Amino acid sequence: MLTALRQQVQAVLYAVPAKRKPALRRSDAPDALFATDLPLVAEEEAVSGFVKEMVAQGWTVRALNGWLTLDAAVPVPEYALPAAMMGACGCCILLLLRHREDGPAQDAIRAVTKAADAGRLPFERLCEQLHGEFAVRLRLHQPLPGALLPYLCHAYMTFKP
User: Fold this and answer.
1) Distance in angstroms (rounded) separating the CA atoms of residues 9 and 3
2) What pLDDT, on the 0 to 100 scale, is given for residue 138?
3) Per-residue pLDDT tens digits of the chain, which is 161 residues long
4) Which residues contact 92 (CB under 8 A, 6 or more apart)?
5) Quick one: CA dihedral 46, 48, 71, 154, positive or negative?
6) N or C: which end of the chain has fewer CB within 10 A?
7) What's the pLDDT at 160?
8) Helix or strand or coil: residue 39?
9) Sheet strands side by side (includes 24-26)
10) Is 26 helix (H, G, I), strand (E, B) or coil?
11) What string of DSSP letters covers 72-109?
12) Which is nearest to 101 in space by CA: 153, 148, 150?
């Protein structure tokens, strides 16, 4: 799910004149998809140009500890409901299907997208965490992040057991 977004950032990032190729990685910050060390390897004017271009393309860019974090809306993936659902992700999907509510979802979408990009194990760990959070939300009569359903289904089908 992050491939197209990563390519969009890379197209602008790698065109910036720098001392070396800037690093681009998934961000550890929960409110950003990517992070780059561009400010450490390029002139301030080049960094400013990069930021302006990314903002013009709809990205949010923030400086954080010498790095830049980048965030944008993750496009809703095409998906189909799995025929059989197992594990924590399957439970999360079933809960979202049964409790179609619109709780806050952007942070969860970002987390699922980054975990799926990292691989099967990080994705499964995140699903276990989400399953517990969903159970707490239901007990407290709080809405679930219904917009998360397509992202979970898409990732589940990518890693299905």
Assistant:
1) 10
2) 93
3) 789 999 999 999 999 999 999 999 999 999 999 999 999 999 999 999 999 999 999 999 999 999 999 999 999 998 888 888 889 999 999 999 998 778 778 999 999 999 999 999 999 999 999 999 999 999 999 899 999 999 999 999 988 76
4) 127, 130, 131, 134, 148, 152
5) negative
6) C
7) 72
8) helix
9) 24-26, 34-36, 67-71, 60-64
10) strand
11) -PPPPPP----SS--HHHHHHHHHHHHS--B---HHHH
12) 148
Question: Which residue has tokens 């806050």?
Answer: 104
| Rounded CA separation 75/2 (Å) | 9
Reading the block at residue 16, the tokens are 């910036």
pTM above the 0.90 mark? no
Nearest residue to 131 via CA among 81, 82, 95: 95
Sole residue written with tokens 């499964």: 124
Q: Are strands 24-26 and 34-36 parallel, antiparallel or unpaired?
A: antiparallel
Are 26 and 114 in contact, with CB atoms under 8 Å apart? yes
For residues 75 and 4, the answer to whether their CB atoms sit within 8 Å is yes
Rounded distance, CA 2 to CA 117, Å?
7
Q: So where are the chain's domains?
A: 3-71, 87-159
Helix, strand, or coil (residue 67): strand
Cα–Cα dist 8/47, whole Å? 16
